[in-house]
Amino acid sequence: MRQVRLSAFGGRLALEPSCPGLIALALMILALAALLVASVVLGSDGPSPRAALAALFGSGDAQALLVTGEFRLPRALVALLAGGLLGLAGALTQGATRNPLADPALLGISQGAALTVIALAVLAPGLGGNWGDSWRPAAAFAGGLGIAGLILALSIERDGAGPVRLLLIGIGVAAFLGAMTTALLTYGGVNEAHSALAWIAGSVRNAGWSAVWLLAWLTPLAGLIALLAVRPLAVLRLGDELATTLGHRAGQSRMALMAGAAALAAASVSVVGPIAFTGLVAPHLAARLAPAGPGLHLALSWAAGAGLTGLADLAGRTLFAPAQVPAGLVTALAGAPLMAFLMIRSFGRKPE
Fold first, then answer.
1. How far apart are CA 33 and CA 86, in angstroms?
2. What contacts 225, CB < 8 A, 6 or more positions away?
3. Average pLDDT over the chain, rounded to whole?
4. Does 313 reside within a domain?
5. Domain limits at 285?
6. Is 225 left (phi over 0), alpha (psi -120 to 50) or beta?
7. Which band of pLDDT confidence, cut at 50, 70 and 90, is reported for residue 311?
8. I need a surface site. Which of 11, 13, 20, 262 has the fewest CB within 10 A?
9. Residues whose CB is less than 8 angstroms from the CB of residue 25 and which lie 6 or more positions away in sequence, other chains included
């Protein structure tokens, strides 16, 4: 497998990505650009595809410019950026735990964010008519990150977080939070909880430019987290015992990686709500695009997550028109069969 060597700072920072991986990443970026254009152009209501395409480049009538620039374009960008964060968080989670079935929901982020949103909607309905626009993202981020911190704290062993302990505690806390959310929805006021149900389903329908700029600022920070995670992920691939023999603290590295994954997933969930299966499936798709090391795999996972969420939003908006199905429901419906197919393909391969 041919590799390209990239170095900086006198060789202190060096990367050797594979040529097939770089080609796959370039093709994925082109595919995301095509998906963005398709999301802006296609729609059941509004301007025709030709008028929407002209409006995308700054020309056309006022209606086409309004629909394209204020509704479709920010919605498509938010879907891509939020999905990319989830795909990257999923790759970090699976790499840190060395478990191909792990995803950001393992840290209770989606469940913690959902419980916080529902609790505020049911127990404090008088926060104001614009509560959803002003308080929901911050409350969801705080709830998701707080629960992730709790799970990581409960998982600490002598040298950090053990993968088995982390998995078990994460599953238990997530189940408890899911039961609490169900209880609030069952016994709380229907009118109070209804405002948060669309968010819980994972929707980018009401995304605006404020969400785009927020995610645009977070994406370079996500890239920095991914860059810092390359070396720990490479060492953890060898196993905890060998990593410790080489002088690397596997438990502490796992804690740092999971904290980074929690921050990325919480940021995405706070903006668009829980998007099911994206963080789980995206790393598997990235691994099948091309053979790659940890760094390139993270980049491909980001692209795969962005593509999955963007496709889910486009499908939910166009295939079921005039009804609009939230992207989270589309990924849940399509993600389970896709994951089963990938697992069957993986189990059916002969060991080399």
1. 19
2. 88, 92, 260, 263, 264
3. 78
4. yes
5. 6-10+18-320
6. alpha
7. very high
8. 11
9. 296, 299, 300, 303
User: Is-contact 57 41, C-beta < 8 A?
Assistant: no
- Spell out the residues 6+ positions from residue 84 whose beta carbon is closer than 8 angstroms to its own: 219, 222, 302, 303, 305, 306, 309
Residue whose entry in the numeric block shows the structure tokens 């199905």: 325
Alpha helices, H only, 98-135: 109-123, 131-134
Amino acid of residue 319: L
Whose tokens are 């998982």? That residue is 155
Return d(Cα 156, Cα 252) in angstroms, integer: 9
Name the one residue in this structure whose structure tokens are 């028109």: 321
Question: Whole-angstrom Cα distance, residue 316 to residue 313?
Answer: 5
What is the rounded CA–CA span in Å between residue 257 and residue 54?
A: 44
For 185, the token pair is 């929805």
Q: Which residue is listed with tokens 């795909």?
A: 87
Q: What percent of the chain has pLDDT over 90?
A: 12
Quote the radius of gyration of the chain (alpha carbons, Å): 21
CATH number, domain of 267, equals: 1.10.3470.10
Does 325 map to a domain?
A: no
